[in-house]
């Protein structure tokens, strides 16, 4: 489990994550093969996982709103927090594919991230993530799951990651 940057109270009050503007959003978490096995073993219905190994979003209550099926909207909490996917653990950081390279990137749409962009805390955390993601186990998993590497528009590429 990856330690979190955004304080829980701040994260739970935001209501920005886990909500999407389209049903097949690029931003919907992509799952590692081992995460799919974990979810299925925990009796998560396979229809909540798309063919392209992404979490299948559900119609939200608002116009043009789609939500993660694991989001408890009334509390703004995650039903699978203890075993949530790597992409969810990383956010507001992402693995971004750009020009044939992989970067640890930051989504500036996260209010906490944009507010702390120049902070030592964020820089230190980015180094921690870089070290974690370049561990032999993480590299092995990423290589086995190349579909997890996507190109995200509008993110800030921070550090190049060698996988």
Can you characterise this structure?
- This protein is α+β, with helices and mostly antiparallel strands and 163 residues long.
- The protein has two domains: 7-83, no CATH class; 92-163, no CATH class.
- It is 30% helix and 17% strand.
- The chain is built from six helices and eight strands; from the N terminus they run αβαββββαββαααβ.
- The protein has helices spanning 8-14, 33-41, 86-90, 111-115, 120-133, 136-144; strands at residues 19-20, 58-59, 66-67, 71-72, 77-78, 93-98, 101-106, 156-161.
- The strands form three sheets. The chain has a three-stranded antiparallel beta sheet with strand order 1-3-2, with no helix packed on it. Strands 6-7-8 form a three-stranded antiparallel beta sheet, with helices on one face.
- The longest helix is centred in the C-terminal third of the chain and has 14 residues, at 120-133.
- It starts with 7 loop residues before the first helix and ends with a strand.
- 25% of the residues are buried.
- The model has no long low-confidence stretch (mean pLDDT 94).
